[in-house]
Design goal:
The chain has an eight-stranded parallel β-sheet. A four-stranded mixed β-sheet has the order 1-2-11-14, covered by helices on one side. The protein has a two-stranded antiparallel sheet with strand order 12-13. The two termini are about 15 Å apart. About 35% of the residues lie in helices and about 20% in strands. The chain has one domain: Metal-dependent hydrolases (TIM Barrel, Alpha-Beta Barrel), CATH 3.20.20. About 0% of the residues have low confidence. α3 packs parallel to α4 and α6 packs parallel to α9. By secondary structure, the chain is α/β, with parallel strands linked by helices.
Length: about 375
């Protein structure tokens, strides 16, 4: 078997296996209750650490609530085999009323690693989100002092802005003024979906605070045609929504570029099948079961497997100021068919799938 260790320069032809430092997921939804218990092992078996989204009902707005949620996540880890050492990296949900004192408590906790900005009404369970960032000025100043990153869902909610333009408008209306007003603030532009976001992050003013961006596997693989042509496919509906092919191609170019500001964040977001296939049509794709395989497929098809380790394993911890993993994982070239659903207490979560089988599998 021809095995690649990521220190070797190569193109992907003829490579049968790929070993890399164990990646981390810098944006994931693991939910709570029965969903958490059933699905958390998928994330834990693939990743060493993960930034946990706080948009539960009610949202995780305090360090005390984050500690309790972290305890539930740790209880759901596998008890043997891969995933037993998985570490959840907690976040707090920013509201108009989050206090500077809470930011200091979060920093001193040692387990809270970011503060999540959901503009009110942008996505699942975002009703308690920020209505106007001006309400958060003193809190953002505290974040600058503590170096806690602000993790942003980068869309405006202005009803006159087309849903496909909300990310581009967010850059001009919110992100650029935010970075100018708080020049020491660390910001993660999460799950970017447009060429505009790629260019903004790549050419960001280095005199301002650190800026990074996560990219999901599903946005690397699909464009909006896949979701809409031949009938609406609810299990491809996510927010931010899929964009044109030109934007998908720009995301792939960014991910494989080796640029340290771009790193892995799955935004895996499970919903029960009956909620996806309903008048609600909840937003989210479930990719935690096979996320690394999806990313490997993207990098392989682009002839850039040698760049996967930086994107998946190094750029994220470097941005967050955390050590790189000394553990490793190995992906093998192997065609396999995913299950259609994950069954949970008589209900099910549909697994994100493409029209073709995966060509890589985690050993």
């Amino acid at each position: 078997m021809n095995i690649l260790h990521q220190s070797t320069e190569f193109n992907s032809f003829g490579i049968d296996a790929l070993t890399l430092a164990r990646p981390d997921d810098w944006h994931v939804h693991v939910r709570d209750g029965a969903l958490l218990k059933a699905l958390l092992p998928h994330t834990a078996q693939q990743f060493g650490r993960a930034i946990i989204m706080p948009n539960l009902k009610p949202p995780v707005t305090t360090t005390e609530q984050a500690a309790a949620y972290r305890k539930r996540i740790l209880a759901a880890r596998p008890t043997q085999g891969p995933g037993t050492a998985f570490e959840p990296l907690m976040t707090l949900y920013l509201t108009d009323n989050t206090s500077p004192d809470e930011i200091w408590r979060a920093r001193e906790s040692g387990f809270v690693h970011g503060i999540k900005l959901y503009p009110a009404g942008t996505t699942t369970n975002s009703d308690a989100g920020v209505t106007d960032l001006r309400h958060c000025a003193v809190t953002l100043e505290a974040m600058q002092k503590t170096s806690l990153p602000l993790l942003v869902h980068g869309e405006v909610t202005d009803p006159v802005v087309d849903v496909f333009d909300r990310e581009e408008v967010f850059i001009d209306r919110v992100l650029e003024p935010l970075r100018r007003d708080f020049p020491a603030l660390k910001v993660v532009f999460e799950h970017i979906t447009t060429r505009n976001a790629v260019e903004y992050v790549r050419h960001a003013d280095t005199s301002l605070g650190m800026l990074g961006a996560t990219i999901t596997a599903h946005h690397l693989l699909l464009n909006r045609n896949t979701m809409l042509v031949g009938g609406i496919k609810p299990h491809y509906y996510c927010l931010p929504i899929f964009k044109r092919e030109v934007h998908r191609a720009a995301l792939v170019e960014a991910a494989i570029s080796g640029h340290p500001r771009f790193f892995l964040g799955t935004d895996s977001a499970p919903h029960l099948k009956n909620f996806k296939e309903s008048s609600c049509g909840c937003a989210g794709c479930y990719t935690a079961l096979h996320a690394l395989e999806l990313y490997a497929q993207t990098f392989d098809e682009a002839g850039a497997l040698r760049r996967l380790e930086g994107f998946a394993s190094f750029h994220g911890p470097d941005f967050y100021g955390l050590p790189r993993s000394i553990d490793t994982v190995t992906l093998e070239r192997s065609s396999w068919t995913l299950p259609e659903n994950i069954d949970i207490d008589g209900m099910s979560v549909v697994v994100f799938k493409m029209s073709k089988d995966l060509s890589w599998k985690l050993r």
